[in-house]
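Progress against Task 2.4 (sequence-to-structure conversion) is shown through the following example record, which the project officer requested during the mid-term review.
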Amino acid sequence: MPDADVIIVGAGLSGICAASLLSAKRPADRVIVLEARDAIGGTWDLFRYPGIRSDSDMHTLGYSFRPWRGQKAITDGGSILSYIRDTAREQDVERLIRFGHRLLAANWDGVAQHWALRVQTPEGQITLTTRFLLGCTGYYDYEAGYQPDFAGQEDFAGPLVHPQHWPEGLDWHGKRIAVIGSGATAITLVPELARKAAHVSMIQRIPSYVAGMPARDRLGDRVKRILPERAAYAAIRWKNILLGMGTYQATQLWPGFIGRLLARKAAERSGTDPADFHAPYGPWEQRLCLAPDGDLFDALRTGRASITTGQIAGFAPDGVRMESGDLIRADVIVVATGLRMRLGGGAALSLDGAVLRFADHVSYKGAMLSGVPNFAQMFGYTNASWTLKCELIARWVIRLLNRMEAVGATVATPVSPQDLKLRSAVPLSSGYVQRAHGSLPMQGDRGPWRVHQNYLRDVYAFRYAPVDDGAMVLSTMDQSFSTRA
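Structure tokens generated for the chain above:
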């Protein structure tokens, strides 16, 4: 007998979601959650930089089965971390977590029909086996963020900081700060640092689109006063889902118009040039940045912060030298230059001893990989809240396990046709995605091999479409079969 029916790797936002749903829907299953670190929370426990927050509203970033009760819809990282930990406690899944357990390698044993996991623990390495493996490790490298080498950076006299490893006790009171980058992290950092700094200079190679949004959902507040809590939460959640989908579709239909509109609105609010916010790509070709209550725009308008667009020539002892010849003086430099993508938490995966490379496989519904048995990987939306897709995947894994049990199958393997036209499963032009080219799975040109960035389509595909759809092959030790549910 394997050690577990399901092993979940990661105790962050998606791992706690999966553990909670599995415990509730399949209480007889033996579930283990492996967490490499010593705390629940994943991203929201790792990142400690000033002002860390979500750029998704909590009514969709939160779980459908546990209403968000906070006052702010766009909230800080500490509140999100508390929400995840409170959920784990309320759903009684803390008992399933093995802290300090890092997955090093996992091999599918086709004869035994289970996954064999090599796990590093505080006491040494152990082996665990499981019928089904569910990856909830996110998509980036927890060990190090992406930091390019700048000429002369060793000459800079002050602290050089990457947000992923923010030093405890760093004092920026009254200091001049240069923030290199224009992505979501930089947009979060600049207004927060500007509250205490002498001045914050945001240096961007190219602009990003930034949209202002109220931190509190006023319409949602009114709905809460009218409806019972769960009904109000569901109504607000669906309102935000549909609003987000409508906004995204508008950007795809009229990218030029929406891009100019976003840039003009940002410039009007911040008192800057629209060129500072007009990206050289369409909205949502990279993730749209969010400024809650227009905090970035206010920092720019008051002069506490400024934007410089251009190429960096290198560092000087007292700041950043631009190719234009300008010197941006700084006492502290924050390199908000992005993440390193790393699927599977960096574990070495294999099938009967043969190395498993994500790029050699086609994504099935954005949840499993072609030719890979009894394995699912959480990967959220790029144009909406991460959790929306992850919860759909978790619920679908439960449907899959139920179907396997009903027909007596021990193995579930998506099998892709040979005539698929392939492209990357992650449709973003962001630097961290492009740097990971060649290590990401592919997607096809039709379902169920196409990854849709559309919640309504996925609701049908994950919750109502037949589990064994002709692409999903269910098998036992001695035979393969596929019957329609």
